[in-house]
TrEMBL record:
This is Class I SAM-dependent methyltransferase. GO terms for biological process: methylation. GO terms for molecular function: methyltransferase activity. Signal peptide: none annotated.
Length: 199
């Protein structure tokens, strides 16, 4: 029997984000603050632009704007529901991760977010899109990804339990360098980093 493609529809977001409350608002606010502070530390200025790939309903947008009201946010997701319902108000657009093999919707962003996405992608889709994310990152990427070694709780439908080394190899091959806590330094900024800033 052919497997059905996972649907990121209203029921999905209701179950995992409204009723299930994955992480909650306070946890999200802490992640946003961490990502912004890390990017600003390395850029040595306030974050002005954010590209959110796999943005869902654009949950990062409000806490980002609360911290930096003038920043420009753009999000992309494969969910027709999320983009159809929230796209116009939250600047969300339709794209699959692999589309970033060629898609260049903006100049390199100060902060690239790809949170809770990569462990649901087939390896070939991840490999197609990841170099594009590296090109589109001018500062820091927050690549929140869960691995086989983690005791993460949440949506296991379509989850690929790969070892952490699988992702490290791919991120580094794309030119990113680890900063810790899901943060990765843009290839453009790696030459200026000191030895102990890199994990």
């Amino acid at each position: 029997m052919p497997c059905m493609e996972k649907r990121y529809d209203r029921d999905y977001f209701d179950r995992w984000y409204r009723r299930g409350g994955i992480g909650g608002r306070q946890r999200l606010a802490r992640k946003v603050a961490l990502a912004v502070a890390t990017a600003e530390y390395h850029l040595e200025r306030p974050v002005r632009t954010v590209l959110d790939v796999g943005c869902g309903e654009g949950a990062w947008r409000a806490p980002l704007l609360k911290l930096r009201p003038k920043l420009r946010y753009i999000g992309f997701d494969s969910s027709e529901y999320a983009v159809g319902r929230h796209g116009a108000r939250r600047n969300l657009h339709h794209a699959r991760f692999a589309d970033f093999e060629h898609l260049r919707p903006c100049p390199p962003a100060d902060l690239v977010v790809c949170a809770d996405v990569l462990h649901y992608l087939q390896a070939r889709e991840l490999d197609r899109g990841l170099p594009g994310l590296a090109e589109l990152c001018g500062g820091v990427a927050f690549l929140e990804t869960f691995a086989r070694e983690d005791a993460a709780e949440g949506d296991e439908d379509g989850f690929f339990g790969r070892p952490g080394a699988f992702y490290r190899r791919r991120f580094e091959a794309a030119g990113f360098r680890a900063l810790g806590s899901h943060c990765w330094l843009s290839p453009a900024l790696v030459p200026g980093a000191t030895a102990l800033e890199l994990a």
